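Renewal narrative, Specific Aim 1. Our central claim is that a sequence can be written position by position from structural information alone. The example that follows is taken directly from our test logs and has not been curated for this report. It begins with the structure tokens describing the chain, in the order in which they were read.
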């Protein structure tokens, strides 16, 4: 049996703001290949980021 538990975290902007991605797949390895124990994740789910703030500080090289 083979299990993959992927958990990825990364900072996103503010020091206490994190983005998390988690994937878990389980399969049995056989002589002819592999058989999933649960249906595998085949699609990525896109969660759009929040719209940029128009009241926050401006970045160098940008104008309002």
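The sequence written for that structure reads:
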């Amino acid at each position: 049996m083979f299990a993959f538990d992927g958990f990825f975290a990364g900072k996103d902007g503010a020091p206490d703001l994190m983005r998390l991605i988690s994937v878990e797949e389980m399969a049995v390895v056989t002589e002819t290949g592999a058989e999933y124990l649960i249906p595998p994740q085949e699609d990525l789910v896109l969660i759009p980021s929040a719209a940029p703030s128009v009241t926050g500080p401006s970045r160098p090289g940008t104008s309002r």
